[in-house]
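User
Class, as today's exercise, I want you to study this protein, comparing sequence with structure tokens, and judge whether sequence predicts the tokens.
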Amino acid sequence: MKTLGIHHITAIVGKAQENVDFYAGILGLRLIKKTVNFDDPGTYHLYFGDKGGKPGTVITFFPWNNARKGQIGGGQVGVTTYAVPTGALPFWEKRLAKFDIPFSKENRFGETYLQFTDYHGLILEIVEREAGEITEWSHGEVTPDVGIKGFGGAILFSTNPTETIQAVQEVMGLEKVGEEGDLVRFRSTADIGNIIDIKQSPVSRGEMGIGTVHHIAWRAENRENLVEWQEHVKNNNHYVTEVKDRNYFNAIYYREQGEILFEIATDTPGFAVDEAVEELGTAIKLPENYEARREELVAGLDPVTVRNLD
């Protein structure tokens, strides 16, 4: 079995408005869904992506105001990479400087990356890529000709890189395409969210908290395909969860033996299942089992606004 690539990435951050300001206001992504953490409904689950929340473009967050600061390390996505159109890096250098966000230039596998951190400590990168559809979303000065297309990929930090490489290659079905320094590179068949670099040296275990990635999710076609993935993961000697209904996709989870939490999520039904594409992210949406508690739950959430910071 072969996944098409990254479905979404989910991280833990601090104040919700700071999170919205960074990913919508500065990076120019669209806030496509305001809901709650289905397992902890007292906190938001915020989703950002392209205009319609296409798989491979979506980053999601659990904003926890009072959580402790995490430590990036083994068992986590260490770096999240975004892809922009060819020729867009100078725009992003100027934009990061405009908002006083320090960045460095990194080179690997023949590509130049702008590396920086968000307000809460997550390590991000921007790289130019020819592949991938130009975004249809604009926000402030971030227009489609320079805007983020979606994920370029990620760098995985593992406590047991041999096992993580085995999971990415043999369980998820990505193809090894190169090695450089301490990194080994894998590619999926999609044109976005398709490049995974794995650090080959073991990394001491990270600590979950603000500024760390909670999990990386891979793409499955639909629920029927997800059940096939569930059996496939079991047959590769991993404990895997039951299928969970996340409203916008169905999902299963397993922790590979390098300690990174992997999710496999369906492309369907998508984010327009409970609000029109034109209205995505404008209302707080709750799963049906929490609707009876709407007043209580919404009262406990800090209001957030998508602001034009330009």
